[in-house]
Amino acid sequence: MSIKKLKKAGLKITNQRMTVLDYLSGADEHHLSAEDIFRDLRLNGADVGQATVYRVLNQLEKAGMLERHHFEGSKAYYELKSKDHHDHLVCLRCGKIVEFFDPFIEQRQKEIAEQYGMQLSHHHLYMFGYCSDPNCRLNTPVIIRSSIACDVCL
Q1: pLDDT, tens digit, for every residue of 91-123?
Q2: Measured between alpha carbons, how far is 142 from 140 in angstroms, rounded to an integer?
Q3: pTM here?
């Protein structure tokens, strides 16, 4: 599947691109920084440089295979592009990221856009707060996916 997407995007199939794509496809977490990806690849014995990881991530994003998010500050997080639209809740203390889809929020956004004479092409909704987990503290982000299915995408 990754090979077809690379070819369709006009990118050559290189070991570096395949290494990064394979890692992202198999990762437990779905929102990873370039630093996280580089560190994990090196820990797993991959012969890839940090500049290469950044370059590959940028190429894959431009090719429409990855989505870049800026949840906090200027640090970028990457996730594989999905057919299913979702929004994000982010804990400002521990970094937990919750993916969710709510058809009422989606409908309301469309109504607001129409009210102001805009036709939406896409959007990103990030909501920030503090989770209720009693063990919440500064640590590595944890990803939670909502069980609400996406059936009303833009």
Answers
A1: 888 888 888 999 999 999 999 999 999 998 888
A2: 7
A3: 0.72
